[in-house]
Amino acid sequence: MASAAEQLAANLNFGAFAKATELKKRIWFTLGALIVYRIGTYIPLPGIDPTVLTELFQSQGGGLLGMLNMFSGGALGRMTIFALNIMPYISASIIMQLMTAVSPTMEQLKKEGESGRKKINQYTRYLTVLLAAVQGYGLAIALEGAVGSSGPAVIDPGWFFRFSTVITIVGGVMFLMWMGEQITARGVGNGISLIIFAGIVAELPRALVGTLELGRQGALSAFVIIGLLVMAIVVIAFIVFMERAQRRVIVQYPKRQVGNRMFGGESSHLPLKLNTAGVIPPIFASSLLLLPATLIGFSGGDSPGWVQFISIMLGHGQPLYLILYAALIIFFCFFYTAIVFNPEETADNLKKYGGFVPGIRPGANTAAYLDFVLTRVTAIGATYLTAVCLLPEFLISQYAIPFYFGGTSLLIVVTVTLDTVAQIHSHLMAHQYEGLIKKAKLRGRRG
Prior knowledge:
Blueprint: H1 4-11, H2 14-19, H3 21-40, H4 50-60, H5 63-71, H6 75-78, H7 87-102, H8 104-111, H9 114-144, E1 147-148, E2 151-152, H10 159-186, H11 191-217, H12 222-244, E3 246-252, E4 255-258, E5 261-264, E6 267-273, H13 280-298, H14 305-313, H15 319-340, H16 343-352, H17 364-399, H18 407-446
Antiparallel strand pairs: 1-2, 3-6, 4-5
Helix pairs in contact: 3-10, 3-11, 7-8, 7-9, 7-13, 8-9, 9-10, 9-13, 10-11, 11-18, 12-17, 12-18, 13-15, 15-17, 16-17, 17-18
């Protein structure tokens, strides 16, 4: 008789997927929500001249602005109701996670379990509204001060335009936040990551056409275009390798006798990923870098000298921007890893169940050893993330390559794809186990 594992492996095919009705509902819900999101990225803000906007964005679309447009799936360049995408919510999440690390009150809420988590989520939503309103107002001021060759970008500037822009932007951000939560709960994958993923993937064909057009015009040589495609394949393979890489810490369990039977004695391993934080650090870093751009937008066309200096230094390829971006990525790699993995708690759980790391005393020594290993592993992961995310900056400064072919976009696409496929596979596995249990019960009744 074939084992349950062999039966499971044999049945994981298209037929198994066809029978998994719950999984199909989740996938259709996710696809439907992402289609609604893409439709929203083409609904423009009222009172803006699209011709002037296109002209201004083409002349100033590099660097931070281009990266934010990439995260928004082109919505920022079209100045639509989803222009800020989900970035204010991500900024609010960063602030709340920092608060849980420095504020005793927030830390106590985090320890209260599900009820505390709900309160923190509610505070995050309130903060999202505040940040979206501030950034939306800064966007409105910046648009009023923008002037192209054919006239101003805003047809009728004034308080009515500012108010309507803020209301529309806040409404768009809150709708995307709600949609992301619904995808996570009722769909497949992480909703927030999938929204950013959908925007990048949807704009990839346009970026490819734009790159080929540069080649046709002679701005890029055929050798550079072929090299770009080869580089993208190599970067994707490198990202997959690094995302699957683990440092396995051996854990031994002692033998124990219960009655006449002997249990335990086996060894297992504790997997520590090289990149525990995943795609969070570059998204968090980009979101924080949006805040100075928002402050610059408040000044409109009459910018003081220091504001203009900051705006220039935050341009793509500039040393200050590269240093800040790299520093934020490294910081959030360590910060997020410290949040999701607690060495002291892991060491206590191992001690509680009798597990120990060979050669290391249980308790505090095990926690110190895990912290040491995790720090070294995270340093490698942070270096890898920084190198991948700074890649598009050098490509843009040298060859004017679109952000969609850069390391950050490829990192997001590959990481979210791996995570979503893993969740689909787990749903299939659960469905197959349910089927095997039902078959076993039926056979037991017949017997």
